[in-house]
Amino acid sequence: MKSRKEYNYFEAFINLSKFSLNSAEILNKTLHEFDIRKINEKIREMHNIEHSADIAKHEMLECLMKEFLPPIEREDINVLSQKIDDVTDAIEDVLICIDIFNVKHIRPEILKFTELIVDCCKSMDSALVEFQNFKKSKKLHSEIVEINRLEEEGDALYVNGVRNLYKTSGEPVELMVWTEIFRRLEKCFDACEDVANTIESIVMKNS
């Protein structure tokens, strides 16, 4: 662990976002190449990432407890680290849900979700890179706007996906399973937007 004097909270935020992006890429690849025989292996891989993210977050908060003068308010560091961690958790929840419901085939429209989640996590990572120099950055605002745009695109996928589901299936179990999976996918976009909104709030307070 870095010493208090050396600890860089902005780099730590970026590090947390890398876990989210890695999780998104694994989810996307797993569902594009879906093989039910490998689902447990992929869940373990995803859980290891989530566990590493938790360790990194706890390290940050441990440094924060001993920090005399953090670069931004303690509460903001705590909240932002949790919001980024929520993205990783939300992505993991999608794969867990697919396993719990014993899904054997992935609906084609689901792949549009996972590709967009990867894009959203990439934009979140870019926003956090710009956040390091938020007082001088000329790109941070556009990165936040892009995350908001992707979240709206994710909402549209959710609405269209659920509508199509109920138009094409009358089987109660299938409806229940895929409605929940759609909901968890949509939650990933909301989690990314929460990060963007938190960054924006911190910038406003420190401008």
Terminal residue distance: 31 Å
How helix-rich are the residues, as a percent range? over 70%
Strand content: under 5%
CATH C-level class: Mainly Alpha
Overall pLDDT score: 94
CATH architecture: Up-down Bundle
* Structural class designation: mainly alpha
The CATH homologous superfamily is termed Phosphate transport system protein phou homolog 2, domain 2
CATH topology descriptor: Methane Monooxygenase Hydroxylase, Chain G, domain 1
DSSP summary: helix tally: 6
Domains (count): 1
Element-by-element helix/strand order: HHHHHH
Number of strands: 0
Q: What value does the Rg take, in angstroms? A: 18 Å
**Major sheet:** none
Low-confidence stretches: none
Any idea what the shape is?
Answer: globular
Nutshell version of this structure?
InterPro entries: PhoU-like_sf, Put_Phosphate_transp_reg, UPF0111_domain. This protein is an all-alpha fold and about 210 residues long.
